[in-house]
Sequence to fold (149 residues):
Amino acid sequence: MAGGLSNGEDDDLEEQHEINVTPFIDVILVLLIIFMVAAPLSTVDIPVELPVAAAPRQPRPEKPLFVTLKADLTLAVGEDGVARGELITRLDAATQAKRETRLFLRADKTVPYGELMRLMDQLRAAGYLKVGLVGLEGPAGVSASEVAR
Fold:
């Protein structure tokens, strides 16, 4: 006869078929608060002052073909003004329809970036894939705002 402390009642533990989810919910709420605090910190815009290009000067072709986007959003091929709808026709005439010709794209610094991208998309859709952007050259280590002063 094995001995044990018993008061004579049946104290077998009943099985519980439910999971206690309270600690799980507490952990999820803490993680939610952490992500709510950390998410805005990862999307903060940082002001960046871009430097002036200091790359060595590249040789220029004998007769470069410039496409110019002026401040009033009008276009010019070479020195001649052109409507946006006639741009590709004028470029084909100037390049003898040689789509591998390198174009030099100049844009006024007040032109919105979206307009510049729209023009580059138009050139790319027409097959002109060799497009160089023209900018001012400055000494190395000088920022764009210092050049503007």
Observations:
- DSSP finds four helices and five strands in the chain.
